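User: Teach me something about this protein's shape.
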Amino acid sequence: MAAPSNLNEYEALARESLSPVVYDYYAGGADDEVTLGENLRAWRRIRLRPRLLVDVSRIDPAITLFGRALSMPVLTAPCSFNALAHPDGECAVARAAEASGILQIVSMTANKSLEEIAASSRGHRWLQLICFRDREITRDLVRRAEAAGCSALCVTVDQPLFGRRERDIRNAFSLPPGLTMKNLEPYAAERLSSDDPSAMGKFVEDMFDSSFTWEVIAWLRSVTKLPVVVKGVLTAEGARFAVEHGAAGLVVSNHGGRQLDTVPATCEALPEVVDAVKGKADVLVDGGIRRGTDVLKALAMGARAVVVGRPYLWGLAVDGEAGVRRVLELLRREIVLAMGLAGRPTIGGIDRTVIL
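Assistant: First, the predicted structure itself:
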């Protein structure tokens, strides 16, 4: 069989290799999955305005983000449970991200620990955090992130409660024996290793803080020198609050359509957030990005970079580390081609005149 020629083809192959339960876990969204679908469709509704007769013999998609040089404006998203796709899990993703010259955001609920991931790769990474009721657990995770060489903290703020993901409910999803949330084992090893399928859900309900407010951002800044990035912003109001409380960056995100259904697609929310931030923080965006043209549109609307999740999971499921590398290389080639055909050979030359 010929190698996949785009990211969508990787999903089709991954679906064949994964169990239906795992595929649904990765692919599914909340409720009627309206936002899940709109994340994809919204990028396609935007039209590009190419600039003609521009010298595009040299095209450079590289950026610098918080002082880190990246080969292209792409990060891998903090997706939970990468080892469901391949035994090497997040470590394989870390090696692929390093080889591709980009940055990995490690999920707090990864199947591999921060320490294992750091030992497997010297690439750039951030840690994604959800705040615990016990602030000392959160503080300890911050210390571990610093020790593991993370260069920022990415705080998820759109998950005070868990969205109703009906595919997972129908499938009675749970982690198989031998897999756990490795980063959290030091704080609840017995509960996480329980044979009870509901143990993981109970742990999350008991330990994660559903009462935290914007003051958590200020508190995090008081316990670390790492930049704090707020993930889950969809409105100008949220953007302003994040900046006021010291966020160095924002991720325009609706959690891949997995939390509150019928919220705007990230593509639709991005311009409002960029305008509200007024350059005081770097803005990133995730959700439905499958093509280099999607990345070009995001940059044109003011995003500094994009964050991709499901595509690298499909690559991981198909061919482990090599599959993730191939997904990222395909995306890079498409970004370069889109920049060239649009007559914008440098990242700095991409602005809102690129789109209708």
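Now, about its shape. Residues 105 and 126 are 5 Å apart (CA to CA). The radius of gyration is 19 Å. If you'd like, I can walk through any region in more detail.
User: That's plenty for now, thanks!
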